[in-house]
Amino acid sequence: KTATTDDCGVIPNEVTVGASNEAAEDTGNNTDDATIDVRCPDVEIDKTVDDALVEPNQTVTYTIDVSVTNGPVTNAVVTDDLPVGQTYVVGSGSPSEPTVSVDGRTLTWTFASLTSGDPSVTITYDVMIDADASGDPQENEAEVCVDEDTPCDADVALVTPEFPDIEI
Fold first, then answer.
1. Residues 6 or more apart from 32 whose CB is under 8 A from it?
2. Of 35, 108, 109, 122, whose CB neighbour count within 10 A is largest?
3. How far is CA 53 from the centre of its chain?
4. Are strands 53-54 and 153-161 parallel, antiparallel or unpaired?
5. Up-side HSE of residue 134: CA atoms within 13 Å toward CB?
6. Residues 155 and 119 sit within 8 Å (Cβ to Cβ)
7. 17-58: pLDDT as tens digits
């Protein structure tokens, strides 16, 4: 049977062997037990921004912390969807540059494995607030998914463009 999240934890396992031998005087059953610990990893993501009130043409830095418990996990994929009004600053990604979608709106980082840790990996990158960005709040969501049978996790960071008062 393949373990699922319903099987998480310690599972007892007992085996009994019966024997009968008419020539031997000692016959009977032998029993032994053991336990197995079904490891169920979990992932969490936390996204923050260094400045929530921004101006057009301002550069802001996003930080994404991915935490793993009961790891390791494999094929961790972090995707970050930039809202209209933000442009990724090429070369600013750490610990590596993301793959950027053709339209420039989705950033993707892939990790072959992540070990347990709080955080297991920290990603940072910069965006430029576009000169023509609207004054509406901009939600920037990141998500992490892994191969293991655990739900993906997402978090949002919010910035609000403020336009300087111009007097004549």
1. 14, 15
2. 109
3. 26
4. parallel
5. 6
6. no
7. 776 666 555 556 778 888 877 778 999 999 999 999 999 999
C-beta separation of 56 from 131 below 8 A: yes
Asked if 159 contacts 60 with a C-beta cutoff of 8 angstroms, the reply is yes
SS3 for 158? strand
Tokens matching residue 46: 């936390």
Q: DSSP of 95-130, one letter per residue?
A: SSPPEE-TTS-EEEEEEEEE-SEEEEEEEEEEEEEP
d(C-alpha 63, C-alpha 47), whole Å: 6
- Compute the half-sphere exposure of residue 92: CA atoms within 13 Å on the CB side of its CA: 15
* Cα distance between residue 143 and residue 110, in whole Å: 12
